[in-house]
Amino acid sequence: MDLQFPADPALLPHATPGGVCFIFDANPGTRSVALSGTFNSWVGDACMLERVSATRWQATLPIPAGRHLYKFVIDGTDWIADPANPWISEDGQNNSCLTVDASGAVLMRQHGLSAAAPGPLHARAALASPDWLRDGVIYQLSVPAFGGDFDGVRAKLPYLAELGADILWIMPFHPAGIEGRRGTLGDPYAVRDFDAIDPALGDAVALRALVDAAHARGLRVIMDWTLNRSSVDHPFTRTHPHWYTRRADGGIYYAVPNRDEFAGFDFTDRTLRRTLIDSMRGWLERFGFDGLRFDDSDITPGDFLDEIRADLAALRPDIALISQSYDEFHHLAACDLTYEGGTREMLRRCAEGVADNAAFARYWNESTYSFPRGALRMRWLEDKEQGRASAFLGRAAHRPAAAVLLAMDGVPHILMGQEFDEPTWTGWQVLFEPYRLDWNAFDGGLYAHYQALIGLRRQHPVLRTGATAFVDALPPGAIGFTRGDAGESITVLANLSPREVTFDAAPAHVQPLYASGWQGDGATLAPYGWMIGMPDA
């Protein structure tokens, strides 16, 4: 996220012989401090800090290259962000961040990054991604929740085509684990067989028919892949136990706490890597998937991601790989798209009056120019691990927030039901029981809003690829920016507040393409209004 306060460099994580040094200043009565993060699978007691004074605790840990999230664990119970580090994760889970480059240097996000003063990684070009991904709008769905089975989803493809989404992301459809199962159906991300289909959803013929029908409508199809683990009762745990992480007594386990239904892979085994890649290839070859989305890729070795990319791109040169991470290094050789959840949080802050357009612009600049040049980010208001946008932002602010999201750079993501304000989704845990979207709650006005925004994005390439420039000196609650290139410029204004706002600094003579509550004569927007427009000819 945007940097919340000036940092004391002496207290920040920093490179030192042996790795990265972490420092924590605790209350005098503190009994223990541990370091937990993506670098040790979030184990709460894997790295204990040493008390070096009455209040200071310290530890040095070797950390691989890439973005890492972490917290301190105080007295074994309190998990807190690093109070000395102003860089908080974009995932909505209040984790502290740091990035380590290949030389071992620690790259902390800096204030003031911009096109004129980019971060060190921006000098490196991101992996070239296919145009269909860059130009697309992603729609993520669960087969049983959205359509019941493959045939039910296929029957709803006209709905998605009318909405305008052109990339269909299908959540896991493998058989789920039984041992340690949570709920009646279990976690769909606890995969019991990577090469099989859950028979409750249909068979291979039905899946192929779904993919073919999507392709016939111009939709690309992404398969969700659980990357770093299987269910604890996967046959591999019996036939190849050496492919898994194991305790000192030899027992298989998953290092992430409170995930007893999972068994974690040990990717030092080359045969395991080859087996998983071959399985991925099989799905691409048999069913024609256009890409894969990797779950929990932030705790998967980067060199394995690079291997996957090299192998699958040889099979499908226009493949797209989506990484569930915020890792700058994933863009260099492995993945086309990483997550970008900070836009959602900044929109909430603007709606609540605790941030303004200048803060939004600072966040955009700092997050854009700290990444490799040309890196594609997946922007979202809803994610499977979060609740509904209307609950997070406020129902009234949802529409102007969607206008901002669909006009921004990157690749927009929509979670099933987001487009009609479906009320029952609270997170992917609802899938542990029989669950269907509540189509009776359909908000046709919101659906039409998303439809119009996606249509504008498709009609005007500048909304997909144009340069972004933020408007200066906007009133509280307002967001404003332009998307432009040599041939076209579009202005985007949104009011996330319950008050009318006036845009004194807004570009003059704008002809609205799509607006609500806009009064051009006075350059005002009604509460929760928006305006997307072009200069008069």
From TrEMBL:
Entry GO MF terms: alpha-amylase activity
Entry-linked CDD domains: E_set_AMPKbeta_like_N (cd02859)
A biological process from GO: oligosaccharide catabolic process
SUPFAM superfamilies xrefs: (Trans)glycosidases (SSF51445)
InterPro entries reported for this sequence: AMPK1_CBM (IPR032640), GH (IPR017853), GH13_cat_dom (IPR006047), Ig-like_fold (IPR013783)
Pfam families associated with the record: Alpha-amylase, AMPK1_CBM
Domain Glycosyl hydrolase family 13 catalytic: start-end pairs: 140-457
Stated name of the protein: DUF3459 domain-containing protein
